[in-house]
Design the sequence.
């Protein structure tokens, strides 16, 4: 989706998830 929050990106990202907010790493989810 984009920069929602760390929790969302971490769950949605899965293997691509990182302990950083989507604001820093928007590629986590997208």
Sequence:
């Amino acid at each position: 989706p984009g920069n929602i929050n760390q929790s969302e990106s971490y769950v949605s990202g899965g293997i691509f998830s990182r302990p950083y907010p989507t604001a820093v790493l928007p590629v986590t989810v997208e």
The CA atoms of residues 5 and 28 lie 11 Å apart. The mean pLDDT is 52. The chain has one domain: 1-30. The two ends are 6 Å apart (CA to CA).
